[in-house]
Fold this protein.
Amino acid sequence: MKTLLIADTHFDTSFEPARYKAIIRLIKSVDRVVIAGDFWDSFLCSFDEFVDSGWNKMFPLLKEKKTIYIHGNHDRPKHCNERVKLFSVKQLDKYTLETKEQSFLIEHGHTLASEFEQRHAHITKIFRGLYPWLDARFGGHGIFGPMIVKFIEFNHNQLWKRMKIRLESNQDWLAGKQQLVVGHCHFQKKNTKLRLQSIGSFRWGVARYGIIGPQGLEVFEERYD
């Protein structure tokens, strides 16, 4: 049994053929799929707009693979509706996947490290207006692109640090054996002592993902454009 873990695709209404082909290839190669949050982006479009976009071509295959959908901070349950059942069989905040040798707790990660919009709700109203402009330049495009990339990298590194601090103060977690797999940080990071792995984002030409098989979790990073 092979399970594909993807997170932070942040889909909106813009369809990208190269990214679509890369994701479809991976989904077809496994037995089941777990989406670890921020599948679509409520800062960029509504859920219905996303569901009606070209990305819906992957929904039947996701449903066939009995996809588990874990909500993130950009695709919270309150922003979705019953149409989540078009591409997933279960919708959860976290999911435990058991193999013969290991147990993996999979969640998005925003409950361990809150994003800006959670810590500063009022300022976020302004930020939401700027977010599409910032997101469009996350690939490094335009005059301000490189600076925005550095800012976002810094922000995601801070999220990783906050996750580690949170787990280091959790005696129950430190005494356990379960592996924690998250998204949210957009980059692949690992802390063996805390049994913590970030699988990274799947966008801007780079496919970061994880596969859990009989031998445990493996993470991969490859270009798709």
About this structure: The radius of gyration is 17 Å.
